[in-house]
Amino acid sequence: MARMTREESQALTRAKLISVAQTLFTRDGYAATSLDQIAETAGFSKGAVYSNFEGKEELFLEVLEEHGRLSLSGILAVVNSAQSIDDAIERIAQWSEKSSRKGNWPTLILEYSRQAKPTASFRKSQEKVLRAQWRALGEQLLNLDDTPATKKLAPETVGALIFELTYAPAMSFVSQPTSGDLLRVALRGVFGSANP
Asked: 58-191 in CATH: which number?
């Protein structure tokens, strides 16, 4: 078996740290999760954390970006497999109901914002990431409907609607209506769907 290069080893260490950090952050929260816990749980020294990340905030942001990438790829696969706009709406609603209950993301992000007090540059970089995700989702969904009314819609707005209703903080605490219920109503209104 070939020996790993230093870059391959560091990439594996980094991926393991991100995975463990995600588990701990979503289970215990931002404030209660320490770099010592992350390193110990991952089976590394705290030095391994610092050789990959400047600190807790940078590691959390990597966890958040990874969650965003996985969410986007999941929802794009759902939309891509849809045969019609009505089919896409139903698939999005089902995806949303599953996703809105995983990981306590809304509360975690709010806690992070209060604890870390992100800088203006962080806010700008996060806005850029979010807008790109919203746009990618909105463009794919709008491609399923070629009516004149939807051609006027901004893809970013459509994507934001889906992600924001899915990950709204209230969805962590209520059982009805679900995020899927809200998305069915909103998207049917946006796309003039014939389904009730």
From this structure: 1.10.357.10
Pick the CATH number of 1-53 from 1.20.1740.10, 1.10.10.60, 3.90.660.10, 3.40.50.720: 1.10.10.60
Q: What is the pTM of this model?
A: 0.81
pLDDT tens per residue across span 73-83? 999 999 999 99
Asked whether the beta carbons of 108 and 29 are under 8 A apart, the reply is yes
